[in-house]
TrEMBL record:
Belongs to the SMC family. SMC3 subfamily. Residues 463-486 have a biased composition (Basic and acidic residues). Residues 462-486, 1049-1069, 1201-1262 are annotated as: Disordered. One of its GO terms (biological process) is cell division. Keywords: Cell cycle, Cell division, Coiled coil, Mitosis, Nucleus. Residues 1226-1262 have a biased composition (Acidic residues). The keyword Nucleus applies. One of its GO terms (cellular component) is nucleus. It comes from the Eukaryota. Residues 178-286, 668-699, 793-838, 890-938 form a coiled coil. This is Structural maintenance of chromosomes protein.
Length: 1262
């Protein structure tokens, strides 16, 4: 074991935290005077408590750092020990011991845990730190003190080292006890003398007292008989009253139990009533919902029935219309066909007559043209003067004809193009009509196919909606039940809260919240939540552990510390924790009996929590009854408890009585856990139902989406069908118009072509006339032609008129037929087609089927809603009836409670009367018993002598006896008692005096034993120190010799007690070892010189002897480490070298040394050198090299920092503080030398006397 590290902060000159490392062997500290070397030693001794043990506030203030800057309010010093050898009884290889102080505190810490000062002292003493040998630390000046110590002081030092203070303390205590014993013996003697004198006086008064006592015995016998008779009567009355009271108590107990039962039943009934009222409210809400659903279902069913009825009427009307139309359609079709046949037959006739008329008209035009040409030719001569004029005009006319022909040709081309377009358009319209007809047939087929799929989707929708409604109802029921269970959990939790202290409840609630909010793992919960047992043992378990049921089980103490820290921060109550890492199963032996069994065996819990349950329940037995519990509690050292909850502690205490089951923690916890389980199951089922409901909602949404898409598709198809039908009609109309326009244009083309022929003929005639002679007469051929043309014209006109008449007749017939066809037959046919189109029988039938399906579904929903409405209405009626029943029962229980309360009050009044009477009788009985007791001891015949006498005669005898006693009233009535009492006191005092004498002898024996042990300790210590001194001195002074000599006390003239014997040794009983000697002398020789005593040595030689003595003392009681503060200050170089070698040798042997020095010898052999600097009133430490240290001890400074000491060659740079300190020490050394000279001068005066004693002392050397 050794010091590894010293940490100081705020202590004296060490303001900042300073860490000093040490090696396990020899460590040397160097630094200027006043730099803080000794303060570092003080810090170590401060922690080890051998100085600065009991500090006042002002003394603590002095230990705190005082300097510039902020004031230091607290300081600490810490030692880090290497405990690899386990010298300190701590199971760690490194131990930290800290002491911290402030203005109002002084605390110790071991490995950062707070401990007391007594524990620190015990810990250090167990490691070998002896308080009787404080020389593990040699302070400055300690060497000089040892060197100048007197012989008597050295003897006292050996006594202190040998531990005689313990024996001295016990001896002082024994002397004090002996003084007290002597005082008590003197008091006893005085008391015995007084008793002897008093007994002599009482002996003379005994005769008169004897007569008095005879009459007094008679009186007391009579009074006893009287009191006994009255007492018997009083006891009889009291027994009667007690019996009545017992009956009333039993009755009151029954009524009280009935009251408790009524209270519990009343609470239960109130809960049932509230539950039923809640059920009624829920049922009414369900009824309201069912009523709304029924109303909606009825409305939907009514609307669906109306739709079915309307569609049925429309279908019937359409059927009738179709039937009416279908009857005329065949006849109309026949008429249309016949009319069209007639029109087809008339059309060729009209065409032929038209062609004949047109041919006649063409010929007439040709004849007229020829006649016009011939007439114009006849009139040319009168029209034109010359041939040239005529030719010019003819040419102009030809040119005009040609221009007209060109225009007519263009018109014909345009009309032909129009005709081609019309023909193409007619072909296109016919194709479009065919395509539209095909599409219409396709859409109508798809519409019929979608109707079947639509019905399937409607059925799926109805089914999905039914499932959703059922799930919604179940979800509402579960929500209501969960809300009810939640209210019940809150009520149970509140009841459980009432069974424990408020702070505990707040703490438990906070623990759950803190563990959840801060994610603290390892919290198992309160014991009451972690255990299960039969309900029969609830009373026993609660009575045995009470509030310990709410102790919280955690994995380890770190978890508990964290939660407690949060509890303190939030001020959230108090909780007791059971960390499993700190608990262990204790082996126990339980009695093998049928009357008892361990409580732990009746509790079910997780096996990993066994240490916690073993801690609380492992020491408890459940017993059959209270007698068995008392028996086993005394014999097994275990706590016992009965099934009813009566407890017997192993220390003898018994507790028990009535327990209110309504406040049972375990019952409330069981009910709470059951309710929580039910709520959890309901929540689980509710979650499943909600998932199913969500799935059902998605299914309904999907089906409704499909239905909407199908309805949209159907509407689209219906629109498409209507559009196609409209397009078909439009195409047919356009085709008819195009055909009509085609006929008109073809006729126009034919007319224009006839005009073109006329114009071509006219142009040819005019061209032929050009260049012909201008003659007024026609040629013969022309004349002949002119004559023939007029009759021909007349004939052609007649033919034309006949053809026109025939044409008009044919056209009239054709127009009449067309008029009949178009205005009557085709219109009627079109009307029938429109009627057939408008009356969409398939659509109506599809819509009717759909409406009927909707009506059936609505009827099913209405029937289901009606049944549910009826069911819920019955449920509401039943719940309302249950509420009325509960209210009736509640009223009945309240009446019973009032009656029970009135009965209890009446019983209480009767009980009060009985208790008053009982108290009176008890007072009388106690008075009689007190009187009987006051009679004192009675004669032996007092109990039977007056048994048969009446009370009146006893009173008469008592009065006579009292008269006789009045005559002897002057007698000392207490003479005999006093005589007996004094006799007994005398005997007791004699016994006590003998006991004190024996105690006195025992104490003397103890004192003799203590003196012997003390002498042995002193003798043993002297021999060991003397032996060590010879060895150490021979090593320090080569060739030298040193020894310790005991100096006997001088004989006195007062007696022979102090005179030393001439031969042999004085026994311990006569005189002890310590009392035989007056001091310890030191005799040394340096080399071959003579043997000298301390007063004959120089200052350096005295220092060597003192150092050797300190080493000798240290070897008597070895320590793990030593602190030397400048022990070589006054030594010569050769002795410093010897001291350094000895220190190094011991350090190599496993002992740690920490020294301060200004000399190079110790520095050179040190393994670790620390340098101390001081600047601005603040010290700091750093490890320095051997060269730096040697440079300093050679009068040089350490380092080059601010405040560091400079070499001796530059005295101006030497710190003022160090120089002043050194000068002060030099002055102190001079003063000490002066004192030594004065002391030597005084010693010289006594030399002659001491030399005379030397021969005698040499004979007594040991």
């Amino acid at each position: 074991m050794h010091i590894k590290q010293v940490v100081v902060e705020g202590f004296k000159t060490y303001r900042e935290q300073t860490v000093v490392e040490f090696e396990p062997h020899l460590n040397c500290i160097v630094g200027a005077n006043g730099s803080g070397k000794s303060n570092l030693f003080h810090a170590i001794r401060f922690v080890l408590s051998d100085i600065f043990s009991n500090l006042r506030a002002d003394e603590r203030q002095k230990l705190l750092h005082e300097g510039a800057g902020h004031a230091v309010m607290s300081a600490y010093a810490e030692i880090v020990f290497d405990n690899s050898d386990n010298r300190l009884p701590v199971d760690r290889e490194e131990v930290r011991l800290r002491r911290s102080i402030g203005l109002k505190k002084d605390e110790y810490y071991l490995d950062k845990k707070h401990i007391t000062k007594a524990e620190v002292i015990n810990l250090l003493e167990s490691a070998g730190f002896s308080r009787t040998n404080p020389y593990y630390c040699v302070k400055q000046g300690e060497i000089m003190k040892m060197a100048t110590m007197q012989d008597e002081e050295r003897l006292d030092l050996l006594k202190e080292i040998g531990g005689t203070s313990v024996y001295e303390e016990k001896r002082r205590e024994s002397l004090k006890i002996m003084d007290d014993t002597k005082s008590r013996r003197d008091q006893i003697q005085e008391t015995v003398d007084f008793i002897e004198s008093r007994l002599a006086e009482l002996d003379e008064e005994k005769d008169e007292l004897q007569a008095y006592m005879d009459h007094d015995r008679a009186r007391r016998s009579l009074e006893y008989a009287i009191h006994e008779k009255e007492l018997s009567e009083t006891r009889a009355k009291l027994d009667d009253a007690e019996e009545k009271r017992r009956l009333h108590v039993d009755k009151a107990r029954d009524e009280d139990e009935r009251a408790h039962a009524l209270h519990d039943e009343l609470k239960q009934t109130e809960r049932e009533c509230k539950d039923r009222e809640r059920a009624v409210a829920v049922a009414k809400e369900e009824l309201l919902t069912a009523d709304i659903e029924l109303r909606v279902a009825v409305e939907k069913k009514t609307a669906a029935d109306l739709d079915v009825q309307e569609l049925g009427e429309q279908l019937a009307a359409g059927d009738e219309a179709l039937k009416l139309v279908q009857g005329d359609q065949a006849q109309l079709d026949q008429q249309v066909a016949e009319t069209r046949t007639k029109i087809d037959a008339v059309k060729p006739k009209v065409d032929a007559e038209t062609r004949r008329e047109e041919a006649a008209a063409a010929e007439i035009a040709e004849v007229n043209r020829r006649l016009q040409v011939l007439h114009q030719k006849q009139g040319r001569a009168s029209q034109f003067a010359t041939k040239q004029e005529r030719d010019k005009w003819l040419k102009a006319q030809v040119k005009d004809c040609e221009g007209t022909l060109a225009r007519k040709a263009d018109e014909i081309d345009i009309l032909k193009k129009d005709v081609d377009k019309l023909r193409k358009r007619i072909d296109t319209d016919k194709k479009d009509a065919a395509s539209i007809k095909a599409k219409l047939a396709e859409e109508e087929a798809a519409l019929q196919a979608s109707d079947g799929e639509y019905q399937t989707k409607i059925a799926a929708r109805n089914k999905a909606q039914d499932e959703r409604k059922e799930l919604q109802r179940r979800d509402a029921e579960l929500d209501s039940e969960v809300a009810s269970k939640t209210d019940e959990v809150k009520r149970r939790d509140k009841q459980l809260e009432f069974t424990m202290p408020r702070e505990l409840f707040r703490g438990l609630s906070a623990v759950q919240r803190i563990a959840k909010d801060h994610s603290i793992k390892g919290v198992h919960g309160p014991l009451i939540e972690l255990m299960e047992c039969d309900e029969r043992f609830f009373a026993a378990v609660e009575a045995s552990v009470t509030n310990q049921l709410f102790h919280v089980v955690v994995d380890n103490d770190d978890v508990a510390s964290k939660i407690i820290e949060y509890l303190n921060k939030e001020k959230a109550g108090r909780v007791t924790f059971l960390p499993l890492n700190r608990l262990q199963n204790r082996p126990r032996e339980y009695p093998d009996s049928q009357d008892v069994f361990p409580m732990l065996s009746k509790i079910r819990f997780d096996d990993k929590l066994r240490p916690a349950f073993d801690k609380l329940f492992g020491n408890v037995l459940i017993c059959r009854n209270l007698d068995v519990a008392v028996k086993y509690a005394g014999s097994t050292n275990l706590d016992c408890v009965t099934m009813e909850g009566d407890c017997v502690s192993n220390r003898g205490a018994i507790s028990g009585g009535y327990q209110d089951s309504g406040r049972s923690r375990l019952i409330n916890m069981k009910m709470l856990q059951q309710t929580q389980r039910l709520r959890a199951e309901l929540r689980k089922e509710s979650a499943e139902v909600k998932d199913k409901l969500q799935t059902a909602e998605q299914a309904v949404t999907g089906v409704l989406g499909d239905i909407q898409r199908m309805e949209s598709a159907r509407r689209h198809r219906l629109t498409a069908v209507d559009r196609l039908r409209a397009e078909g009609k439009d195409v047919a109309t356009a085709c008819a118009l195009a055909e009509e326009s085609l006929g008109v244009k073809e006729k126009t083309i034919a007319t224009i072509q006839i005009t073109v022929g006329d114009l071509e003929a006219q142009a040819a005639d005019l061209a032929a006339e050009i260049d012909t002679p201008l003659d007024a007469k026609l040629t013969s051929d022309e004349s002949k032609e002119l004559k023939e043309l007029n009759p021909r014209l007349d004939k052609l006109k007649e033919e034309r008129l006949a053809a026109a008449a025939a044409r008009l007749a044919a056209e009239a017939e054709l127009g009449e037929l067309r008029a009949v066809l178009e205005s009557n037959l085709e219109r009627r046919q079109h009307r029938i087609e429109e009627t057939t189109t408008e009356v969409d029988m398939s659509g109506l039938m599809t819509a009717l089927a759909r409406a009927e399906a909707e009506a059936a579904a609505a009827a099913a929903v209405e029937a289901e809603a009606s049944a549910r409405h009826t069911e819920i209405a019955a449920k509401v009626a039943a719940a309302t009836s249950g509420v009325r029943e509960s209210q009736g029962k509640l009223d009945q229980l309240l009446n019973e409670k009032d009656d029970n309360k009135a009965g209890l009050e009446a019983d209480e009044r009767e009980m009060e009367d009985l208790m008053s009477k009982r108290a009176t009788l008890q007072a009388k009985r106690e008075g009689l018993q007190r009187k009987i007791r006051e009679l004192g001891s009675l004669p032996s015949d007092a109990f039977e002598k007056y048994r048969g006498k009446a009370l009146k005669s006893l009173h008469s005898l008592l009065s006579k006896t009292n008269e006789q006693l009045s005559k002897l009233s002057h007698v000392n009535k207490k003479a005999l008692d006093q005589y007996q009492q004094f006799t007994e006191q005398r005997e007791a005092l004699e016994i006590r005096r003998s006991e004190l004498m024996k105690g006195h002898e025992k104490i003397k024996e103890l004192m003799s034993y203590l003196d012997q042990k003390k002498d042995e300790a002193i003798e043993r210590t002297f021999k060991q120190v003397s032996l060590n001194f010879r060895e150490v001195f021979s090593k320090l002074v080569p060739g030298g010799k040193g020894e310790l000599v005991m100096q006997r006390k001088k004989p006195t003239a007062g007696g022979a007690e102090n005179t030393p014997p001439t031969g042999g040794k004085e026994p311990h009983a006569a005189q002890g070892f310590a009392e035989k000697y007056s001091g310890v002398k030191i005799k040394v020789s340096f080399g071959a010189g003579e043997t000298m005593q301390m007063k004959q040595l120089s200052g350096g030689q005295k220092t060597v002897v003192a150092v050797g003595l300190i080493f000798s003392i240290q070897r008597c009681d070895p320590m793990p480490f030593y602190l030397f503060d400048e022990i070589d200050a006054a030594l010569d170089p050769q002795y410093r070298t010897a001291v350094a070698a000895m220190v190094r040798a011991q350090a190599d042997g496993g002992t740690q040394f920490i020294t301060t020095t200004f000399r190079p010898e110790l520095v050179k052999v040190a393994g670790c050198i620390q340098g101390v600097q001081h600047s601005h009133k603040v010290s700091n430490v750093r490890e320095v090299s051997l060269e730096e240290a040697l440079h300093f001890v050679g009068d040089a400074g350490i380092g080059s920092g601010a405040g560091a000491a400079k070499p001796a060659a530059k005295p101006a740079a030497t710190p003022k503080t160090g120089g002043a300190k050194r000068q002060h020490e030099s002055e102190e050394d001079d003063e000490e030398d002066d004192d030594e000279e004065e002391e030597e001068a005084r010693d010289d005066d006594d030399e002659e006397e001491e030399e005379e004693e030397e021969e005698e002392e040499e004979e007594e050397e040991e």
